[in-house]
Amino acid sequence: MKKILVTGACGQVGSELVPALRTKYGNDAVIATGHKTEPSQELLDGGEFHYIDCTEIKCIAEIVEKYDIGTIYNLTTILSAKAEANPQLAWDVNVNSLRNILEVAREYKCAVFTPSTIGAFGPDTPLDNTPQITVQRPNTMYGITKVAGELLCDYYYRKYGVDTRGVRWPGLISYVTPPGGGTTDYAVEIFYEAVKHGKYLHCFIREGTYLDMMYMPDALESAIMIMEADSRRLKHRNAYNVTAMSFAPEHIAREIKKHIPGFTIEYRVDPVRQAIAESWPNKMDDSAARTDWGWTPKYDLASMTTDMINKLSARFKK
After folding, report:
1. Torsion (CA) 13, 133, 94, 215 in degrees, nearest 10
2. pTM of the model
3. Residue 78: left if φ>0, alpha if ψ -120 to 50, beta else—which one?
4. Active-site positions?
5. Burial of 283: CB neighbours in 10 Å, binned 0-12, 13-18, 19+
6. CATH 3.10.450 fits 172-212+244-282+299-316, yes or no
7. What is the model's pLDDT at position 181?
8. d(CA 83, CA 13)
9. Which of 122, 187, 290, 314 is most buried, judging by how many CB atoms fall within 10 Å of its CB?
C-alpha cells in the first residue's frame, strides 16, 4: 500500500489530521512534514516526521520517492492576516509550494488534496448561500493565492490527469492548537479566554458579523471523505463548498454563557481583519458536496460549544 504524505503537519489542521489519518490507515502509512514549527510529541511518537521546505521541489520529491507516497495532503499555507502582513511570502508559500507539489505528483502519480477557503471569495460574491460556482474576486493576498491554487489544481487534473481534490473550508475551530493568524480565529480565542478567564476582552471582529464556521472534527472528516470518494462523482473536484454553521460573535458568546453564566465579551475591532471578514460569505451553499459525495457535518454551534468547553476545561485543570 502506498503511503500518505502530509505537508504543513504542525499547523492547526495538520496537527490533528495526521493522528486521524494514522488512526485510520496505520502509523507507518502516514509521513508528516513541517518547515519551522516544532512538532508536538504526538506527531513525533506516532510515526515518521521530517522537516522540509516545500518551496524547494527537490525536498518534496525526495520524500515522495523514499516513502513511495501515493497521496499528498498539502496543508502548507500562510493564513489571511499573516498573508496581508507579508504578501510576497504568502505567494511563495501558498502558490509556489503547491506548484512544486503538483509537479512531483505528476511525476510520481500521486493524488493531491489541497484545501481552499471562504477567503477565495470577495466583496462581489453573494454573501448569503454563496453558490458553488460564482464570482471569485478576493481582495486579499490569501484569497488570491487560494483562487490561484484552485485553478492550478484544475489545470493539473485536466492537462496531466493528476487526481487533485479539495474543499473550501470556512473558519475552523479547535481545542488542540492555538489560533494561527486567521480572520476567523476570534472563534477559537473566545473559548480559550472563556475557560481560562471567564471573559473575552479583545474580540477583533465586530458584533453582528456573520461568518461560516466548522468544528475541526468535521473538517478532518471532509478531507478524508473527499479523498475516498468515487472520482467519477466529483463534478467540482478542486474546491467544494463545505460548511457546518454560521454565526456572529454575540451568538457564540450567548452559547458560552449557558456553560459559564458570568462570561462577558468586549470588542476591540481590528480594521484589517474586520474588512477581510466583511468580504467573506455569511454562509456558503454546500449542496454540491452533500449530493456528490455525501458530505454532512456532525456538529452545530451548541454541540461544538459543549465539546470545546469540556475539552479545554479538562486541559487547563491539569
Report:
1. -10
2. 0.94
3. beta
4. 142
5. buried
6. no
7. 67
8. 17
9. 187
